[in-house]
Design brief:
This protein is mostly beta strands and 117 residues long. Helices cover 0% and strands 38% of the residues. Strands 1-9-8 form a three-stranded antiparallel sheet, with no helix packed on it. A three-stranded antiparallel sheet has the order 2-3-4, with no helix packed on it.
Length: 117
């Protein structure tokens, strides 16, 4: 499982769904701490959480994007203007220095948990 900043003892985790609710290579959206977060589970079982807002259109749609890889890096392609965003770093791979936020995500007892603090 992929997790960002999981080692922080002060991290507050919010359960958002069951791991089995996330279909591989499909996105889902959750509201955590007032943030719309796009969640992804890749075919290898890794979990990723990024901001759901497409910075080019302003629409909350990244959870509906196409999941894939570019040069071995997991990405999501926005359904609006087709820019690719790294699921690891949040960076737009097509137009630097644009990026979306990434959020810590983990699997805990079968539940997907996200921290937006």
């Amino acid at each position: 499982m992929t997790a960002v900043r999981e080692d922080l003892e002060t991290t507050v985790w919010t359960p958002v769904c069951s791991y089995t609710d996330l279909l591989p290579e499909r996105g889902a959206c959750a509201l955590v701490g007032g943030h719309q977060i796009a969640l992804f589970r890749t075919f290898d079982g890794a979990l990723y959480a990024i901001g759901n807002r497409d910075p080019f259109s302003g629409a909350q749609v990244l959870s509906r994007g196409i999941v894939g890889t570019r040069a071995g890096e997991p990405i999501v392609v926005s359904p609006m203007h087709k820019q690719a965003f790294s699921l690891v770093t949040g960076a737009c791979l097509d137009e630097e220095p644009v990026a979306v936020p990434i959020y810590p995500v983990r699997l805990a007892g079968g539940a997907v948990e996200v921290s937006a603090a």
